[in-house]
């Protein structure tokens, strides 16, 4: 019968209801050290699968417990886990349990980065937990912004909720802006949010933090090598709210302003309960409308998500059905111009706090290069940003098999789409630069050029560029002029990405007196496609850009339209990528936690992973019809549309590797433990390797697997007054494939330079402390001190053209690894008494190198966040949250010289000496935001 039940779980995803062996009930209350009832505490019975959840009064009840001996455990994030041996006989049992404070959650049970739930204190990993209270006291700007609270984790949320970067311990080189989660696994409830990554397609696009998140568990390196699918650099697991034993929930109304008074509105809600016979449900989500932190002429973010789970508990486990529906529009901020290499200041009238420098809203229809014969078009409207949609549904089964065997099965299917309609680049292009005219696609755009506002048709400037090919300056022909005598070097960025994904994990666990063995299988299958099209956009170069309609109006000659009525030019001539791929990821793993002595454990794990990439990519060439796509010789903007040639480059490669990790943990006192761990992990290439690096050439070789080796020594101490963790680490990353984005000034095409294989090494110390001198006051301090080095590093210099005759490589070995601060920390103080609470936190980001040449440094900066809350009634509370309280103008990123197609690596010491007054592009941190939240709990 038991085997039959397992078969039903795996094949039909159902579970039978086992017989009730007893009707004994365990009940009681859970309070904290101040006598306040704890709602949502988890009460479990080992070795059974029965559990209870405390209600708003701190009361809990577990029914139908069979007679026997058990370990009763009570866990709640922020307080110490309580354990007690109990014997269930013939009478009901009642408990009154008071839990002691645990500021760093060291005695809470964690599930991330290990194959068996265990106390954080005794886990031989560098793990940090953020509870729901900490999450709710953060300004809602996305996952990366929230993860700044994790020690040792570098995050760059300066672009907004998406297009973010997250990494730790110097494992960062391929975590670029358009794929910033390259080495780490962003997870929801133990499974990845997305299986694949490539340019402008990262997991943060499909993830939103809201009231449905119960806690976050974050692993830096270490055991991630054997517990994550192709994510050896770390795991950031967002765990959703679980079942409730009685009806209840919470509604939050939030309103605020960001930047220069830009409004935002948001509503979050969650509700859960039971409808009898051990069925439990939870439903929640959010909707928001946000004008953004910087100034744009459109709504920056709008939309939301709905999440649910439905659980059936039985004597031997549970069956849970869960899902998420995400339908959301958001955008991402690009760079801002600056001057003064030693002390950057905003240039050209721009402002680090308010300038967005993005395309304004308009609606255009651009011919679809894939389907020119059918006359198909793609609508482009930069106010749409990225339209992210995710439909994810899954089943999670836990089943006791007897004889201390436990089966866990988790399966999820999702359909994802990300439709980007935004701009790429916003560089300065002088009107003396021939690029300003020839990038239109016109054959010879020399003479009298007229710029008109696209919306109104009003003439802004008329000029004569006849002498620019001879090195002479252009001349205005009337009183009009363009701001800064320039246009913005930018392109419309249309990307249509879709994926259908299946992922699952099966674990079989066997416990004995001295061993905790886990065997498992995890897999993921993704069918993905992408289409990218780019057109040049004529836009003024000023803080609030305007689209420009541009014509060539030479006397006694036909008027030539260099742009369409919206200001778009060179239709589909800058970018074309039409690709598709099938990805399979399969892993087998085994782990043993061996109790050598009562306080000494050896953790050993192996993971064999095989990853397959099979797909194809269309070759493309400019449309060659007379008069361009529309057949009209006076419309020059449609003369160079890139379209498929019929040639297709295919790829079919497999990556196989073995990862391992071993650790010793010694608990030398009730509140103290030390661990040492050594890990060897691997990172297979992502799809961008094929999509970005092969332009109209066969994909004749597979990418390199990056090797990640880490050693760490950690100490953990936890008491009610003072808790601390410290982890010394050494990490090495090998076979880093690096290619730069470049622009060919001769033919006007964008290309990627040949891949260079490089290595890096980082040595550092992470720490996390919490001190509560009195019960109402606590201080927190966490951070990292590290030395990141690019041990072997070369950069390919394409010399501004596809022609390789003048190319070279530059060696920057032993320089400091860019974008990794040597010092980074968070310092906070929190106060809570009766109905009042408040906090102040200071985030310090140390100086970082802006590129591997170490020619430019991003200065250190500090940001203050603060909040105050008050419990108006037992059910109603109010909170005021402020981020970047003093409007600090920190710089988070560096994009290189302020020219179209430039990259950060193009700036060397020699370049700065030669161009001391040149402008460059930086990405500032987001400005101040204030939010008032009203919460109703029921």
UniProtKB/TrEMBL annotation:
GO molecular function: siderophore uptake transmembrane transporter activity
Coiled-coil region(s): none
Pfam families on file: CarbopepD_reg_2 (PF13715), Plug (PF07715), TonB_dep_Rec_b-barrel (PF00593)
Alphabetical keyword list: Cell outer membrane, Ion transport, Iron, Iron transport, Membrane, Receptor, Signal, TonB box, Transmembrane, Transmembrane beta strand, Transport
Signal found in the keyword field: yes
Name under which the protein is recorded: TonB-dependent receptor
Lineage: Bacteria, Pseudomonadati, Bacteroidota, Flavobacteriia, Flavobacteriales
Domain TonB-dependent receptor plug residue range list: 122-235
Family: Belongs to the TonB-dependent receptor family.
Chief localization: membrane
Mode of membrane association: Multi-pass membrane protein
Residues in TonB-dependent receptor-like beta-barrel domain copies: 399-885
Gene3D superfamilies, sorted: Carboxypeptidase-like, regulatory domain, TonB-dependent receptor, beta-barrel domain, TonB-dependent receptor, plug domain
Any single Gene Ontology cellular-component annotation: cell outer membrane
Annotated compartments: Cell outer membrane
């Amino acid at each position: 019968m038991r085997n039959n039940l397992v078969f039903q779980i795996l094949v039909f995803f159902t579970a039978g209801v086992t017989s009730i062996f007893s009707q004994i009930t365990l009940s009681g209350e859970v309070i904290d050290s101040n006598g306040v009832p704890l709602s949502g505490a988890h009460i479990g019975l080992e070795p059974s699968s029965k559990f209870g959840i405390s209600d708003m009064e701190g009361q809990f009840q577990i029914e139908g417990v069979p007679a026997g001996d058990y370990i009763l455990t009570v866990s709640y994030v922020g307080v110490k886990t309580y354990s007690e041996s109990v014997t269930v006989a013939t009478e009901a049992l009642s408990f009154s349990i008071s839990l002691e404070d645990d500021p760093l959650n060291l005695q809470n049970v964690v599930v991330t980065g290990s194959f068996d739930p265990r106390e954080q204190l005794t886990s031989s990993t560098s793990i940090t937990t953020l509870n729901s209270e900490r999450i709710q006291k953060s300004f809602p700007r996305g996952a990366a912004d929230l993860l700044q609270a994790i020690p040792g984790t570098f995050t760059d949320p300066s672009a907004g909720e998406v297009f973010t970067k997250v990494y730790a311990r110097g494992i960062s080189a391929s975590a670029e802006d358009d794929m910033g989660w390259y080495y780490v696994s962003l997870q929801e409830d133990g499974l990845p949010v997305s299986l694949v990554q490539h340019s402008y397609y990262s997991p943060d696009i499909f993830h939103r933090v809201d009231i449905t998140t119960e806690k976050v568990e974050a692993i830096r390196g270490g055991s991630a090598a054997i517990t994550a699918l192709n994510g050896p650099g770390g795991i950031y697991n967002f765990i959703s709210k679980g079942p409730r034993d009685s009806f209840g929930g919470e509604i939050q109304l939030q309103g605020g302003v960001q930047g220069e008074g830009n409004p935002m509105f948001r509503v979050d809600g969650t509700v859960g309960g039971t409808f009898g016979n051990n069925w439990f449900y939870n439903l929640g989500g959010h909707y928001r409308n946000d004008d953004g932190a910087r100034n744009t002429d459109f709504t920056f973010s709008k939309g939301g998500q709905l999440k649910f789970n439905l659980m059936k508990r039985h004597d031997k486990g549970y069956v849970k059905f869960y899902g998420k529906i995400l339908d959301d529009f958001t955008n991402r901020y690009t760079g801002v111009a600056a001057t003064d290499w030693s002390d950057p200041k905003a240039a050209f009238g721009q402002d680090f706090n308010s300038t967005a420098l993005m395309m304004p809203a308009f609606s255009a229809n651009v011919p679809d290069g894939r389907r020119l014969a059918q006359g198909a078009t793609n609508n482009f409207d930069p106010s749409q940003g990225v339209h992210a949609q995710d439909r994810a549904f899954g089943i999670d089964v836990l089943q006791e098999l007897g004889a201390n065997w436990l089966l866990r099965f988790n399966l999820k299917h999702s359909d994802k789409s990300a439709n980007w309609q935004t701009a790429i680049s916003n560089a300065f292009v002088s009107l003396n630069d021939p690029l300003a005219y020839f990038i239109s696609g016109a054959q010879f755009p020399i003479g009298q050029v007229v710029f008109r506002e696209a919306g109104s048709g009003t003439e802004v400037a008329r000029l004569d560029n006849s002498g620019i090919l001879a090195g002479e300056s252009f001349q205005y022909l009337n009183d009009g002029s363009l701001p800064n005598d320039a246009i913005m070097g930018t392109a419309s960025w249309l990307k249509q990405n879709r994926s259908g994904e299946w992922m699952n994990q099966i674990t079989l666990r066997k416990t004995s007196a001295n061993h905790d063995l886990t065997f498992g299988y995890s897999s993921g299958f993704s069918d993905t496609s992408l289409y990218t099209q780019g057109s040049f956009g004529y836009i003024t170069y000023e803080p609030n850009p305007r689209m420009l309609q541009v014509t060539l109006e030479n006397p006694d000659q036909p008027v030539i339209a260099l742009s369409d009525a919206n200001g778009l030019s060179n239709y589909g001539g800058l970018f074309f990528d039409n690709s598709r791929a099938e990805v399979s990821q399969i892993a087998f793993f085994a782990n043993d936690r061996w109790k050598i002595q009562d306080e000494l454990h050896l953790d050993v794990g192996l993971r064999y992973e095989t990853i397959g990439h099979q797909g194809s990519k269309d070759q493309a060439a400019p449309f060659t019809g007379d008069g361009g796509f529309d057949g009209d010789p006076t419309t020059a903007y449609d003369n160079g549309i890139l379209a498929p040639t019929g040639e297709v480059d295919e790829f079919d490669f497999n990556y196989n590797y073995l990862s391992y990790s071993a650790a010793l943990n010694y608990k030398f006192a009730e509140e103290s433990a030390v661990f040492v761990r050594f890990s060897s992990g691997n990172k297979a290439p992502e799809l961008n390797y094929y999509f970005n690096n092969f332009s109209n050439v066969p994909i004749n070789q597979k990418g390199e697997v990056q090797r990640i080796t880490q050693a760490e020594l950690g100490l953990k101490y936890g008491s009610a007054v003072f808790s601390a963790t410290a982890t010394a680490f050494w990490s090495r990353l090998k076979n880093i494939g690096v290619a730069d984005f470049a622009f060919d000034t001769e033919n006007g095409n964008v290309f990627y330079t040949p891949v260079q294989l490089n290595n890096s090494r980082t040595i550092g110390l992470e720490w996390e402390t919490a001190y509560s001198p009195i019960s109402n006051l606590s201080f927190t301090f966490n951070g990292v001190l590290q030395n990141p080095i690019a041990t072997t590093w070369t950069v390919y210099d394409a010399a501004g053209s596809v022609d390789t005759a003048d190319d070279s490589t530059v060696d920057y070995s032993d320089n400091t690894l860019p974008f990794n601060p040597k010092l980074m920390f968070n310092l906070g103080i929190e106060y809570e008494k009766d109905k009042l609470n408040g906090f102040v936190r200071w985030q310090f980001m140390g100086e970082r190198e802006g590129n591997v040449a170490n020619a430019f440094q991003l200065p250190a900066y500090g940001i203050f966040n603060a909040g105050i809350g008050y419990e108006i009634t037992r059910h109603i509370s109010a909170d005021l949250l402020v981020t970047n309280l003093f409007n600090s103008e920190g710089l988070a990123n560096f994009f290189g010289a302020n020219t179209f197609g430039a990259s950060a690596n193009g700036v060397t010491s020699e370049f700065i000496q030669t161009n001391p007054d040149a402008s460059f592009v930086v990405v500032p941190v987001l400005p101040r935001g204030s939010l008032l939240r009203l919460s109703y709990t029921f």
